[in-house]
């Protein structure tokens, strides 16, 4: 497995230069490292911020599972979407509100055909709310299918 978490990960993360705002590091409650977040007060409604994970060494014709922690905290905070590079049009995963402020786990299966996925993009779309944040952390890529809960 490949650890792409932000505090000690070995992965190549880039901010999109053509979006409306950047994701920023935020300290974890217990003080053990940080995660990436977009506070609710950044930008205007419908503005987008994209954080891209570059995947360079995925083998063709293999399966991978991308597992990550995410949090949508606050009223009408916005949407979090995940896109795979070779399937640009539609998000492969989307969440638009949390039942509470807790961190949850997202899983995405990545099937490498002849055409390989070379990046995963986390996109935050700003909502109407003025409090809370959208956060992403503990991004890990494992080979094989996603485990059952």
UniProtKB/TrEMBL annotation:
Signal peptide: none annotated. GO terms for cellular component: membrane. It comes from the Eukaryota. InterPro entries: ConA-like_dom_sf (IPR013320), MAM_dom (IPR000998), MAM_domain-containing (IPR051560). Residues 2-148 form the MAM domain. PROSITE patterns: MAM_2. This is EGFL6 protein. It comes from Psophia crepitans.
């Amino acid at each position: 497995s490949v650890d792409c978490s932000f505090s000690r990960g070995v992965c190549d993360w880039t901010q999109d230069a053509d979006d409306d705002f950047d994701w920023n590091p935020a300290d974890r409650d217990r003080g053990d490292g940080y995660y990436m977040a977009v506070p609710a007060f950044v930008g205007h409604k419908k503005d987008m911020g994209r954080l891209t994970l570059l995947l360079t060494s995925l083998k063709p014709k293999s399966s991978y599972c991308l597992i990550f922690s995410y949090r949508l905290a606050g009223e009408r905070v916005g949407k979090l979407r995940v896109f795979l590079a070779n399937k640009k049009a539609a998000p492969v995963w989307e969440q638009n509100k949390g039942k509470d402020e807790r961190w949850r786990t997202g899983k995405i299966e990545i099937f490498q055909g002849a055409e390989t996925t070379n990046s995963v993009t986390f996109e935050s779309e700003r909502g109407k709310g003025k409090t809370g944040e959208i956060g992403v952390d503990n991004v890990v890529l494992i080979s094989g299918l996603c485990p059952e809960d």
